[in-house]
UniProtKB/TrEMBL annotation:
<keyword id="KW-0812">Transmembrane</keyword>
<dbReference type="GO" id="GO:0008124">
    <property type="term" value="F:4-alpha-hydroxytetrahydrobiopterin dehydratase activity"/>
</dbReference>
<protein>
    <recommendedName>
        <fullName>Putative pterin-4-alpha-carbinolamine dehydratase</fullName>
        <ecNumber>4.2.1.96</ecNumber>
    </recommendedName>
</protein>
<dbReference type="InterPro" id="IPR001533">
    <property type="entry name" value="Pterin_deHydtase"/>
</dbReference>
<dbReference type="InterPro" id="IPR036428">
    <property type="entry name" value="PCD_sf"/>
</dbReference>
<keyword id="KW-0456">Lyase</keyword>
<comment type="similarity">
    <text>Belongs to the pterin-4-alpha-carbinolamine dehydratase family.</text>
</comment>
<feature type="transmembrane region" description="Helical">
    <location>
        <begin position="12"/>
        <end position="37"/>
    </location>
</feature>
<dbReference type="Pfam" id="PF01329">
    <property type="entry name" value="Pterin_4a"/>
</dbReference>
<dbReference type="GO" id="GO:0006729">
    <property type="term" value="P:tetrahydrobiopterin biosynthetic process"/>
</dbReference>
<keyword id="KW-0472">Membrane</keyword>
<keyword id="KW-1133">Transmembrane helix</keyword>
């Protein structure tokens, strides 16, 4: 503790967090600690970036999906534990196109791409990770970034 006090506050937090994570790695059962660290990771979804996942990763299971879904808009619905879907209503077809054109560069930047369905002024966005045939964190990161798009003028 004495050593920690000598360090800068951000550094102390980092040291404490690393210590807590190593406790969890070592199997020390501190559910409240795990939960709070998990919450922090989830809160930052829209600041995170998608990572390539080519085949080797397992799709998220239903428990993991339940954790992730709490951190994006409640408008997103889980479909068969394999994809998430959100419907947007814009003013008109031009609004739909503008919305899609706002999302496209985000998807390109993240190298993670939504399936997009357009029905005049309705846009349905479906997110799934094709490479693994199910959901990955990438889908929730992209969902959080799509949630951040301001559709009020479209
Ligand atoms: C090489 C590149 O990272 C992959 O082909 C990416 C591209 N965008 C993707 N988007 C989605 N939704 N799923 C994928 O598996 C995927 N793979």
């Amino acid at each position: 503790m004495l050593k920690l006090r000598l360090l800068q506050p951000e550094r102390s937090f980092f040291v404490l967090k690393s210590f807590c994570l190593s406790l969890i790695d070592a199997g020390v059962g501190l559910p409240f600690l795990t939960a709070s660290i998990k919450t922090n990771i989830m809160k930052d979804l829209k600041k995170k970036h998608c990572v390539p996942c080519e085949g080797e990763a397992e799709p998220l299971n239903s428990l993991q999906i339940n954790d992730y879904i709490k951190n994006i808009s409640p408008e997103w619905k889980v479909i068969d534990n394999k994809k998430i879907r959100r419907e947007f209503t814009l003013k008109d077809f031009k609004g739909s196109m503008a919305f899609i054109n706002t999302i496209a560069p985000i998807a390109e930047e993240e190298d993670h791409h939504p399936d997009i369905h357009v029905y005049y002024k309705e846009v349905i966005i479906e997110l799934t990770t094709h490479a693994i045939g199910g959901l990955s964190e990438n889908d929730f990161i992209l969902a959080a970034k799509i949630d951040d798009v301001d559709v009020s003028g479209l």
